[in-house]
Amino acid sequence: MKREEVRQIYLPDLFLGWKLEVWNNTLCRQKGEKTLPATNDTVGQVSNTMTLDSLLLNLNDTSWDECVTLDNIATDEDAKKLQAEGYPFVISQEKFSALLPEIRPEMVYLSKSFSVSSFYFNPETLAACILHIAFFSLDDGATYVEQAKRAIKIREAEVAAGDYKGSVLSLSDGLRMGYFQRLIEKVGSLDGKLYSMFFDIYVTSDYGFRAIPTEMLETIIASKPESAKEETRKQVDALPDLVTVYRGGNTSSTPYTQAWSWSPNINTAHFFAARRGDGPGYVAKGTVHKEDILEAFLDSTSEPELIIRPGDVKIQEVTTLRGLDEVVDLIKVICVDFQKYSAELDKVTFQTASNIHDKLHSKRVLIFCLMMAELLQLPSEDVETLAWAAVYHDTRRINDDAEPGHGKRAALYYRNHCPGSYDKVTNIIIHYHSLGDQKGYEAIAREIQGQEARERATKLYNIFKDADALDRQRLGGLRAIDVRMLRNPVAQELTLASRLIYEQMKD
Fold this sequence. Notes:
Elements: E1 6-10, E2 19-23, H1 52-57, E3 68-69, H2 76-84, H3 93-99, E4 108-110, E5 118-121, E6 128-130, H4 141-160, H5 165-170, H6 173-187, H7 192-202, H8 214-222, H9 226-237, E7 242-249, E8 261-262, H10 266-274, E9 281-289, E10 293-297, E11 305-308, E12 314-321, H11 324-347, H12 359-375, H13 380-392, H14 406-417, H15 424-432, H16 437-447, H17 451-470, H18 489-492, H19 495-504
Antiparallel strand pairs: 1-2, 3-4, 4-5, 5-6, 7-9, 8-11, 9-12, 10-11
Helix pairs in contact: 10-19, 11-12, 11-13, 12-13, 12-17, 13-15, 13-17, 14-15, 15-16, 16-17
């Protein structure tokens, strides 16, 4: 393929710094070329450019080992060094002690987390609370100093009474699991209240069990009270004897071979695999005997979850979700066809103005069609069929609601306006893409002659409907894509790519 002039375009400002090398005029108009300085990617080593997405991902991802106590910051010079290392708000021991002389400096912790950059922690009692050190030097800083004194007093009183909830919730997400490790070391096991609090916090945590040693987890599981065991039994009894489970992750996730957290819902796994970062991601599928399920969170949640020892899950298959690097490579291959049919799309008229079923949606569907065609190594005539279907499929919508008849009207528009020879398979795809699959299969069986031709038409129909479904990202994010409804395995590999492409082409 002839190489065109290369230029660099940038993903939207949401991802300050993701750069794509693509051929001229491939996807959309050039975005603002604003990037952050290059840095080492410590998570996945996928790129050397810091992005806003990675900043958000690591906003709370700090560890106890990274925290620095105030007794190590004797001077302003020490404070400046720590700021240069990424600690956002730093004060010297001398200045802090002048404001709060009653607080021992070794109990004042500084972290790289922007959400909780400084906090009080008493390793003897496990009392913890946020310290708004950044506000201490303001004109009304005395107010924040007094608030800090009261907060410390309250937390110390709570833990003295056996209430650790306020302390653990004071910490950033990345520190909470480590807090429980210290709590186990202090009290030996968790009572019913602490056990419930641990899992209440766990199910809302982005960092899960990775901050806790396996032996500590076993101690927590062993402390499970009878009431919690009964609740688990109620949920697990409704499951089949052999349960299919899924695990989704990416370059920053715990490897699935070491994971305790699984879901019986493949959509939940894809969500966690694709929601952040530039990939690649993975979705592991396995089976587990229900008697080996340690904990279950299945009721009244959009993210059903099962806690299982890693060795008890028998892995069946692992799907790799294609990430940014592969998306870029695919765009380079399909760019000529994308340019060609995007130009045709710009020529057609849409019956109703919409920001849901508009030309941008059709262009994203076109991209997914071309990507899947390339991944499946389809011949050029199949590419042409899919591309023309993408151009015309939503042109005759009259509203954004469920509208089964718009496919038929769009097929008529295609027949009357297609520039070139009419293609029956393209017409069927356009006509029946808005109806249930069975209607489309029946039309293919009725209108296409010969088994081989019918199989080809069915394959292209399924590919197109998957391409359309992948752009449901625009209707509610990744949760709007029901992976169970995707007809081709290759489409399941593109859920992360669907987010990346939507981020690139939503304006």
